[in-house]
């Protein structure tokens, strides 16, 4: 590990504070989301996630919304997107649980993984509350099957590979919420997603620092630009 256990735990404590701050407003954001949904039901055309002609700016990079939204997902409601996000979060929870129980992690790394797992569990609950009853409470089965072999291989190889795998999962989650920010029109849904995205981005950064990665490796903006990193709900439907 490229940073000390003390430094790693300190960084995890900082992102835990960020997570808690975001959670303080989530119940209010979910209530606002449901209030918006009731209004949108009277105007069905607005009840769907839509892509406009705008763009999302990330640092110096400008990303057209249409490039981060799969064509097959353009008719999803934000309830569908929230249910999908819940299923992705629960895959992350399962991955961290498997890693923590592997016996391959140093004590500090295991503790950090357990902290990150609680964040993903809380995010899953928040998205479930925003889904309008569409969430299943289960990990995305297809995604879990898809990442299973890589997780098994990472655990067999030891701590470094586990950290690399976890960082990849966090980057995929971050890219997925970038997709959601481009897809959603609802202010409350955007606020909810924007509360969660920076926490998961910080997870990826901390894991990268533990691996001794450079700045370019920690912030892979090209993944967002080329639209290759996100988890596509069309490929991994909620069961």
Lay out the secondary structure.
Blueprint: H1 5-40, E1 55-58, E2 61-64, H2 78-100, H3 107-130, H4 141-157, H5 159-183, H6 187-210, H7 215-218, H8 221-226
Helix pairs in contact: 1-3, 1-6, 2-3, 2-4, 2-5, 3-6, 4-5, 5-6
**Count of individual beta strands:** 2
Structural class: mainly alpha
Q: What name goes with the CATH superfamily?
A: Ferritin, core subunit, four-helix bundle
Task: Give the overall pLDDT as a whole number.
Answer: 78
Give the neighbour order of strands across the main sheet.
Answer: 1-2
At the third CATH level, what is the topology name? Ferritin
Order of SSEs: HEEHHHHHHH
**Number of structural units classed as domains:** 1
CATH class, please? Mainly Alpha
Based on the structure given, which CATH architecture is correct? Up-down Bundle
Sheet of most strands: 2 strands, antiparallel
Shape: globular
Distance between the termini: 38 Å
- Percent strand equals under 5%
Q: Which residues form runs of ≥5 with pLDDT under 50?
A: 40-73, 222-226
Helix content: 55-70%
Q: Count of DSSP helices? A: 8
User: How much is the radius of gyration in Å?
Assistant: 17 Å
Summarize the model shown.
The protein is mainly alpha-helical and 239 residues long. The protein is 67% helix and 3% strand.
Describe it for me?
With 239 residues, this protein is mainly alpha-helical. It has a single domain (5-36, 70-226), classed as Up-down Bundle (Ferritin), CATH 1.20.1260. It is 67% helix and 3% strand. The chain contains 8 helices and 2 strands; from the N terminus they run αββααααααα. Strands 1-2 form a two-stranded antiparallel ribbon. Helix 2 (78-100) packs antiparallel against helix 3 (107-130) and helix 2 runs antiparallel to helix 5. The longest helix is centred in the first third of the chain and has 36 residues, at 5-40. The chain is globular and about 45 Å long.
């Amino acid at each position: 590990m490229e940073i000390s256990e003390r430094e790693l735990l300190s960084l995890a404590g900082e992102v835990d504070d960020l997570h808690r701050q975001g959670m303080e407003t989530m119940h209010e954001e979910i209530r606002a989301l449901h209030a918006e949904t009731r209004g949108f039901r009277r105007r069905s055309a607005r009840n769907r996630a839509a892509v406009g002609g705008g763009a999302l700016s990330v640092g110096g990079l400008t990303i057209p919304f249409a490039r981060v939204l799969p064509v097959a997902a353009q008719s999803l409601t934000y309830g569908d997107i929230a249910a999908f996000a819940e299923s992705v979060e629960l895959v992350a929870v399962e991955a961290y649980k498997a890693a923590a129980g592997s016996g391959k992690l140093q004590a500090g790394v295991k503790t950090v993984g357990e902290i990150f797992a609680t964040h993903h569990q809380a995010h899953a609950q928040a998205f479930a509350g925003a889904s309008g009853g569409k969430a299943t409470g289960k990990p995305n089965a297809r995604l879990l099957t898809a990442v299973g072999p890589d997780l098994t291989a990472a655990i067999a190889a030891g701590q470094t590979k586990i950290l690399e795998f976890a960082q990849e999962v966090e980057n995929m989650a971050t890219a997925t919420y970038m997709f959601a920010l481009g897809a959603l029109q609802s202010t409350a849904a955007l606020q909810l997603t924007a509360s969660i995205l920076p926490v998961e981005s910080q997870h990826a950064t901390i894991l990268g620092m533990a691996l001794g990665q450079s700045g370019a490796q920690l912030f892979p903006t090209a993944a967002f630009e080329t639209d290759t990193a996100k988890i596509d709900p069309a490929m991994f439907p909620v069961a």
